[in-house]
Amino acid sequence: MADKQLSVRIVSLQKTLFDGPAQSVSLPGTVGAFEVLPGHAPIISSLEPGTIEVRDADGAPHSFGIRFGVVKVRNNEVTICAAN
């Protein structure tokens, strides 16, 4: 099942908020909310104020409020830099 997971890293100016495997990530994109699942096409997007929702490898939810940020998705790796 490891190939059906994302590797997610969320960092703010102060610290790392999340770093680990996940099933999905929901993001507040500037042109609308979207969800990243394993196999998602490569994308770079800006993020608007809202909540990042991560469903970790065990299915547990994690929420992070942000003011703005940017996300890069490539090869099941999700990197998010955000101000919270």
Automatic annotation (TrEMBL):
Gene3D superfamilies: F0F1 ATP synthase delta/epsilon subunit, N-terminal. Keywords: ATP synthesis, CF(1), Ion transport, Membrane, Transport. Pfam families: ATP-synt_DE_N. CDD domains: F1-ATPase_delta (cd12152). The keyword Plastid does not apply. Produces ATP from ADP in the presence of a proton gradient across the membrane. This is ATP synthase F1 subunit epsilon.
